[in-house]
Write a structure and sequence with these properties.
Elements lengths: L1 E6 L9 H6 L5 E6 L3 H6 L4 H20 L4 E3 L8 H12 L1 E7 L4 H16 L3 E5 L21 H14 L38 H14 L1 H7 L12 H6 L4 H12 L4 H24 L22 H9 L5 H13 L4 H14 L4 H11 L5 H12 L14 H8 L4 H6 L28 H17 L1
Parallel strand pairs: 1-2, 1-4, 2-3, 4-5
Helix pairs in contact: 6-11, 7-10, 10-11, 11-16, 13-14, 14-16, 15-16
Bound molecules: flavin-adenine dinucleotide.
Flavin-adenine dinucleotide binds next to helix 9, helix 11, helix 14 and helix 16.
Protein name: Deoxyribodipyrimidine photo-lyase
GO biological process, one term: nucleobase-containing compound metabolic process
GO molecular function: deoxyribodipyrimidine photo-lyase activity; DNA binding; FAD binding
């Protein structure tokens, strides 16, 4: 008998529940990954994300080969082709048991549900294990037994759970046989990118990034994380998004490297961001409509969004005439990553000031980001657009000029990304207001557009 570990959103050997289960006995173990470019396109995955995915897959194939575990890479187009390909592989290799880690978005869940039946029918068992979060997705419920939809009470419970269930990691498996030649990757040239060379692929690189952050920047994180000109955050989001790193490994690394008694005492502010990530994943799991381009607050579907047109294009290109927004969009377009504060600023600007449907911004981010991750992207966009689980009321709208004065006070970030206005001094830099040749005048009046957004949200309540 041969056990199969089916890698999906978990491209790692360490802390991988499905891999541990596959390697638990003495049976032969083989591995597979099924690239599905048609599905990637449907999900708006960017070539930046898939380039890192393919490089991480390459590394995983080499690591598995060194352990004597062959990795079969079989390209399919869409999830609907999975049954045929997996069944063929199982028949070829004499596999009767498949192990995989759970995925929480709608299409993935439908695929697994359908597949379980189809495989069972052929005498093959599919075992699915909880993954992707620190706290299992259905673990925390309110007093009424309903899922949490507000972060603050969720995070209180999250911390209680973490303190009473210190994460125990699944060790990477030992060698199962003589080393093998590494597998060849499919070409998939359309899914490659040159924009993310700054980020190395694979588990080793992910751990180096995590450990470097903990050793050098964690101490100042709480004070500096909101300043985009300061490299104060971890930038491990691309690895978490692809499962090259697990969030449980983050907790354990913090505790081990700081020698703290509990993760909370070492790095509460940073790990609270990991709690945000868990929060959005459990929401996606509990509310399948979030995977289907629907608002968390159904009443907001009636908002009269403006036609996207030229305003959306100016936003995408970083030519809105609002320096902080433009700097942020240019950071995204060039590096395929954007600082968290700026994700909020640019998303609010698009959805509140330009009053463009959040779904268009969500899609553009997904098409560019190296860390594009449906739960966090959808959660962040709906939070910013006030269509989601935002505890803050809709009239709390960031003013991007005030935000630049607070979080880029020296103008370092703006000057770097918007060089055409770098010579401006003082407050002029934050709002040149059409006075610099070659740099656009603001495409929208911030005050009036803010008022328009508030009135439209108010009208929803009355309607
Ligand atoms: P750090 O500050 O070092 O945080 C550590 C980790 O915690 C991150 O790597 C990330 O996994 C998680 N995290 C941090 N902030 C958040 C948050 N607000 N929500 C959920 N998880 C968080 N994150 C993604 O991973 N993929 C996305 O597609 C994505 N889209 C976003 C879109 C919008 C509109 C907004 C407002 C936020 C989005 N985020 C997304 C969340 C956040 O901006 C990024 O996770 C963060 O900027 C990544 O940088 P970092 O790794 O340096 O984070």
């Amino acid at each position: 008998m041969t056990e199969l570990i089916w890698f999906r959103n978990d491209l790692r050997l360490g802390d991988n529940p499905a891999l541990t289960a596959a390697c638990a006995g003495n049976a032969a173990v083989e591995a597979c990954f099924l690239p599905a470019p048609g599905q990637w396109a449907d999900h708006d995955w960017s070539p930046n994300r898939t380039d890192l995915l393919l490089r991480s897959l390459d590394q995983l194939g080499q690591d598995l080969a060194a352990l004597g575990i062959p990795l079969h890479i079989r390209s399919i187009d869409r999830f609907t082709d999975t049954d045929t390909e997996l069944l063929a592989l199982c028949r070829e290799r004499g596999i009767t048991r498949i192990h995989a880690n759970e995925e929480y978005a709608f299409n993935e869940r439908i695929r697994d549900h359908r597949l379980t039946g189809a495989l069972n029918h052929q005498g093959i068992a599919l075992h699915i294990y909880r993954d992707q979060t620190v706290v299992p997705v259905d673990q925390l419920k309110t007093g009424n037994g309903t899922p949490y939809t507000v972060f603050t009470p969720y995070s209180r419970q999250w911390w209680r759970w973490v303190e009473s269930h210190p994460p125990r990691l699944h060790p990477a498996p030992a060698a199962r046989g003589a080393p093998l030649p590494p597998p060849a990757l499919p070409e998939l040239t359309a899914w490659r990118s040159e924009h993310v060379d700054w980020l190395a692929g694979g588990e080793g690189a992910a751990h180096r990034a995590l450990e470097g952050f903990i050793d050098q920047r964690l101490g100042a994180y709480a004070d500096q994380r909101n300043y985009p000109a300061v490299p104060a955050t971890s930038q491990i989001s691309p690895y978490l998004a692809l499962g090259v790193l697990s969030p449980r490994q983050c907790l354990v690394a913090v505790q081990q490297r700081t020698g703290a008694e509990s993760p909370a005492s070492a790095a509460h502010t940073w790990l609270n961001e990991i709690a945000w990530r868990d929060f959005y994943i459990q929401l996606l799991y509990q509310f399948p409509r979030l995977s289907r381009h629907q608002a968390f607050k159904p009443e907001t579907e009636a908002l009269p969004w403006e036609p996207a047109g030229a305003n959306l294009e100016a936003w995408k290109a970083g030519r809105t005439g609002i320096p902080l927004v433009d700097a942020a969009m240019r950071q995204l377009n060039t590096t395929c990553w954007m600082h968290n504060r700026l994700r909020m600023v640019t998303a609010m600007f698009l959805t509140k000031n330009l009053f463009v449907d959040w779904r268009l911004g969500e899609q553009y981010f997904m098409q560019q980001l190296v860390d594009g991750y449906l739960p966090s992207n959808n959660g962040g966009w709906q939070w910013s657009a006030s269509t989601g689980t935002d505890a803050a009321p809709y009239f709390r709208i960031f003013n991007p000029v005030t935000q630049s004065e607070r979080f880029d006070p020296e103008g370092t970030f703006i000057r770097h990304w918007v060089p055409e206005i770098a010579h401006l001094q003082g407050k002029k830099l934050f709002n040149p207001n059409g006075t610099v040749a070659g740099y656009p005048a603001p495409i929208v009046d911030l005050k009036q557009s803010r008022q328009r957004a508030i009135e439209r949200f108010k009208a929803l309540g009355k309607g």
